[in-house]
Amino acid sequence: MSYEAKATLPVRLSSWRARLLLGLLLLWFLALIGRALYLQGLNDDFLQRKGDARYSRVIELSAHRGMITDRWGEPLAISTPVESVAASPQDVEVGSAKLQQLGRYLDMPASEIKGRLAESGREFVYLKRQLPPELAAKVMALDIPGIFLQREYRRYYPAGEVTAHVLGFTGVDDNGQEGLELAYQSWLAGKPGSRRVIKDARGHIVEDVESIKTPQEGRDLALSIDRNIQYLAYRELKGEVEQSRAKAGSIVVLDAKTGEVLALANVPSYNPNNRDKLGGARTRNRAVTDTYEPGSTLKPFTVAAALEAGTVRPDTRIETAPGHMSIGKWTIHDAHPEGMLTVAQVIQVSSNVGAAKMALSLAPKYMWGVLNRAGFGSVPHSGFPGEASGRLRPYESWRPIEQATMAYGNGISVSLLQLARGYTIFADNGELMPVTFLKRDAPVAGRQVISPATALAVRKMLELVVEPGGTAPRAQIVGYRVAGKTGTAHKLDPSGRYSRTRYVASFVGMAPASDPRLIVAVMIDEPSGADYYGGEVAAPVFSRVMAGALRMMGIPPDAPMNKIVVPPGKVEAVKELT
Question: What is the separation, in whole angstroms, between the first and last Cα of the chain?
Fold first, then answer.
């Protein structure tokens, strides 16, 4: 047979090779059939997920944050709906021209938008949060596939800087960052929900399929704050800080019967509706988180301890001449020399020497106990985050000079809220009232610190402070008896020495003195004008705020309406230091 004939013969495989090939093909088909049955019958989740990913999305539904109101139901913080621009990167199709236009609307470089859209492994990314409605409408008018709007909520504070330090603020996710917004985050926030939607090829939602989880709305929070008193307190404090060219100032208004905070303000403040440039110094609630040496506003507690111990009576006479006394190598001075003074007069003219002598008549443990029971050295438990405990050193370490200076508020530190709360023992028959920022629907019991007789005796002494011859005639109010105490304390320098030029001026008082309903505490930090005494810069703020608050609350006068209040320029207030 020729070579050409051999080349045309069909190629024959041996029988075993043919059976092997046929078997492999059958196995391959069986594997494909088995895989198909497994995916479509036994385990169809994989294909279902892949299919759903082409058109189905799960979208989070934001929960509406609860409203914060004042004690009368007036809104102080509300959440308003806003639109955020989001994208599904794998669905986005955008040309360079529309990308540039989108960048202008969002105030973002096109390169940054590209970078976010390059995250193809993610189903959802934010491009811009919380846009105004008109700008969000312009973005959607571009009709870019894969870009859509996400409904969110933005917090709005109607009173702005007036209530800023009480309320705090929320972040971009509407979660509390400062103040009561942070303290009651779980109460206000609620829980977000979710829903499944169908999108078309351009990424637009065409149908709601199902609600997976219904949002749980946040609960409203009613505060003890009275919005009208809050406005009054902030306005008067701000005016005095500006007039006295002070570094800062704080004010607290308490309901003496319930311990509720009716107003609390700090200057400088900030606008919580504009959170672009918030600094720690402005957002700090100084009245609650900062401490200072209270100066002579602590003398009533020294007198109360001495009265309780029985070492003095209100009419006990104490020699304060020649206006100074030495303890070891240290000397205590009065701002103005006096002679023999009664205990009541020691309070009226604010004698450091008289207060120091009363303190030294007490056992350190006893004096420490009264101060500790009055709330000093421990947090007020108001519920506000970051509240300060102040500093009350253990009595075992007290030296005589330290006990003497503590009698007039040096060597001890307090917050203004702590001090205002401490004065409830003089306003409420010796009971220390628990303080709160929430509205109380029922009366609460206080903790007995001193006897009712001692509380009344000290309150009568505090009335002398605002009379002619006292340190604060400018604290008087027409038609009301007022009781209070001034303080003018030297500030500590970084070196640890007391400054000769920097002061903290303060006044804490109550009215009507016959049956106190309100306590107002004012602190002016570093007044730099001609006047810097507590009776000159803090007492007038107290007078204006207390007078306005008493009228707003309809509290009847307890003094003759024709009682003449001494005009500030007519009588010189008794000066004091610490």
Answer: 133
